[in-house]
Design the sequence.
């Protein structure tokens, strides 16, 4: 069963540009994953530090595999100081 995920991301003030650029670069890599059906980044028009990633995965196993991908680990290490808070995931089963 496909799994939708909304990731709420908050940039540390002053780190918006770095996080935005890093996320846009990440999107291209994630879209190549076999289990990825959709991976879209949105930026709040009202709050420049808020981003939302809309994701659609083939299933929970695909999401779990995504979390272990080298590019995800690399991004996590690169961007760790750009986040104001941990990324909040909301999973929605269709």
Sequence:
């Amino acid at each position: 069963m496909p799994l939708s995920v909304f990731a709420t991301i908050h940039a540390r003030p002053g780190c918006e540009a770095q996080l935005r650029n890093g996320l846009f670069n990440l999107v291209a890599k994630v879209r190549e994953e076999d289990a990825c059906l959709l991976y879209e980044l949105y930026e709040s028009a009202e709050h420049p530090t808020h981003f939302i990633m809309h994701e659609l995965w083939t299933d929970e196993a695909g999401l779990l595999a995504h979390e272990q991908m080298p590019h995800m680990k690399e991004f996590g290490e690169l961007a760790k100081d750009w986040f104001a808070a941990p990324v909040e995931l909301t999973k929605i089963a269709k």
Observations:
- The chain has a mean pLDDT of 95.
- The chain has one domain: 3-93.
- The CA atoms of residues 72 and 80 lie 12 Å apart.
